[in-house]
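User: Here's a protein and a ligand (manganese (II) ion). What would the complex look like?
Assistant: Let me lay out the input and then the predicted complex.
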Amino acid sequence: MENRKEMKNWFNNLGLNHPLVIAGPCSAETEDQVVKIAHQLKDTDTSIMRAGIWKPRTRPGNFEGVGAIGLKWLQRAKEETGLKIATEVANKNHVDLALKADVDVLWIGARSTVSPFIVQEIADALQGTDKIVLVKNPVNPDLPLWLGAVERLHDANIKNLGVIHRGFSTYEKTKYRNNPEWQIAIDLQNEFPDLPLILDPSHIAGRRDLIFDICQTGLDLNFDGIMVETHYDPDNAWSDAKQQITPAVLDKMTIDLKIRKETT
Ligand code: PEP
Ligand code: MN
């Protein structure tokens, strides 16, 4: 891949904090929920608010997201707090709607990265965009599939490109929901040293008590940021309830992880 050196420059050029903190609920649930969480995150180290509005559920019958109406809620959260906003896109229609709503960060989920057809469709829809695009690893521990998705997006002339490590599924029972398999992220980093690498401890952990240690490991491995699922009432979240933390817990965690910048 050409121009690999350019890849991390965008991170600095956009004035993003390093390490970057992305936080917000697994799913947008109601307008009040999105706006309330945004206001709570405004006073933390969070620069970008995440919320899924199209939710790729492994099995049917679970909450599948509020859909396009959630874009309006995110826009309001951005207007009121100044946070950048992020959501998952899984097809061309999602991309078109997210771009129209001026979403700052679009991420490709683990269940989409496994499909070269879907990744190519998204890459074509995003051709030349100056939005930030983050690619989660595929659900299965397959480095070439992850690299291939990065290459498709890079070939579509997407400059502000990064990756998210969210762990890998395994049939074995482990303490993690998705095994970190750190070596795969390290190998990706070696392949593309200038591609910003964000850690998603929430989907690796599956439970909130593991999140701090996973973040510490990621920072020790020079990750460029974290994306943490955050909700004011985690136990009653409509998806991924066990792994979400409150904005107050996130705030303390960034102090203990020494992410917080000293203000002089
Ligand atoms: C999410 O971020 O809520 C999500 C569905 O993640 P993943 O694609 O990593 O499973
Ligand atoms: Mn989730």
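Summary: Residues 69-81 form the longest helix (13 residues).
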